[in-house]
Design goal:
Inositol_monophosphatase-like, about 25% strand, 7-stranded mixed sheet, metal ion binding, globular, 5-stranded mixed sheet, D-Maltodextrin-Binding Protein, domain 2, metal-binding, Fructose-1,6-Bisphosphatase, Chain A, domain 1
C-alpha cells in the first residue's frame, strides 16, 4: 500500500506541477472559496483529487476513499485518505511548499502513506512499524537538549477570531523555544518533524487528510504524536508531534498557555 500511495501521489504531483507551471506562465486558474474568503480551492485541487480517485479505483477497487474536496466515508477495510494539494494558498501564490498527500488507513489508523512535493520532487513515505523515508533515506527525529533550543512549526485556522487566539498561543510558545515557523502545509510540517528539520509541530483544526500521511511519517521517525481528540488537555482538535527529548515540556507549555481553549 505504501508503494501504491507513492505511485499515485507521484502521478498526481505531475498534474499539480503542470498547473503550477501554467500559473507561472501567466495563465489563470479558477479559484473558489469554502469556509471563508481566505479558505480557497482551485480547479487544480479538484482535478488532482479526481485523478487520484480514478487511479485508486483501478488499483484498489474494493477500498473506500476520503478526500478533502469530494468527501467520502471510511470503509470496513482500507480507506485511502487524500489531500490533492496540501498547501493550496501556497500553490496559489507560487510558493513551492505544497504537496499531494495519500495515506491508507484501517479502522482510522494510518498504516501506509506518501507525501510528494510537485516542485522539488521529494517523496516522503512511511509504513507502520517499518520506518519513514525521504527519497530512500531513512528518517529520524532530532534530539534538542532543551525546549528553549527547539524549532517549532505551527499553523493557523481560516476564521479570524480563532486565528487571534492561535496567534496569542504562538506568542507565548515563542517565548519558550528557539523560534517558531509557519510554512502553510500541515503534511509537510509533519514530514519536517520526521526529518529533524523541525523539532516539533502543533496545530489546531487539521482534518484527517492533512495529517494522515504526515503524522505516520513523524511517528515512524520516532516522534511523540498526538492526533485530534486523543488529548483533551491540548484541545479536541490538536495535532501534536515532537522529538521525545522536548515532547513533555512542550506539551506542558501548551497546556499552561491555554491550548485547550483555542
Amino acid at each position: 500500500m505504501t508503494a501504491i500511495a507513492a505511485r499515485v501521489a507521484g502521478e498526481a504531483a505531475e498534474l499539480v506541477l503542470a498547473g503550477h507551471e501554467r500559473m507561472r506562465d501567466g495563465q489563470s486558474v479558477r479559484v473558489d472559496t469554502k469556509s471563508t474568503a481566505t479558505d480557497v480551492v482551485t480547479a487544480v485541487d479538484r482535478e488532482s483529487e479526481r485523478f487520484v480517485r480514478r487511479r485508486l479505483a483501478e488499483l484498489r477497487p474494493e477500498d473506500a476513499v476520503l478526500g478533502e474536496e469530494e468527501g467520502g466515508t471510511a470503509g470496513e477495510g482500507v480507506t485511502w485518505v487524500v489531500d490533492p494539494i496540501d498547501g493550496t494558498v501556497n500553490f496559489l501564490y507560487g510558493y513551492p511548499w505544497f504537496s499531494v498527500s495519500i495515506a491508507a488507513q484501517v479502522d482510522g489508523v494510518s498504516v501506509a502513506g506518501a507525501v510528494v512535493e510537485p516542485v522539488s520532487g521529494r517523496r516522503w513515505t512511511a509504513t507502520r512499524d517499518e520506518g519513514a523515508w525521504l527519497d530512500g533515506r531513512r528518517l529520524s527525529v532530532s534530539a534538542p537538549a532543551a525546549l528553549d533550543l527547539a524549532l517549532v512549526g505551527t499553523g493557523f485556522a481560516y476564521l479570524p477570531e480563532r486565528r487571534r487566539r492561535q496567534a496569542a498561543l504562538a506568542a507565548t510558545v515563542l517565548g519558550g523555544v528557539r523560534d517558531v515557523r509557519r510554512a502553510g502545509s500541515g503534511s509537510l510540517d509533519l514530514c519536517s518533524v520526521a526529518a529533524g528539520w523541525f523539532d516539533a509541530y502543533y496545530e489546531h483544526g487539521l482534518h484527517p487528510w492533512d495529517w494522515a500521511a504526515g503524522a505516520l511519517l513523524a511517528e515512524e521517525a520516532g516522534a511523540v504524536v498526538s492526533l485530534p481528540g486523543a488529548d483533551p488537555a491540548l484541545g479536541t482538535d490538536m495535532t501534536f508531534a515532537a522529538a521525545p527529548s522536548i515532547a513533555e515540556p512542550l506539551h506542558a507549555l501548551l497546556v499552561e498557555s491555554g491550548a485547550s481553549g483555542v
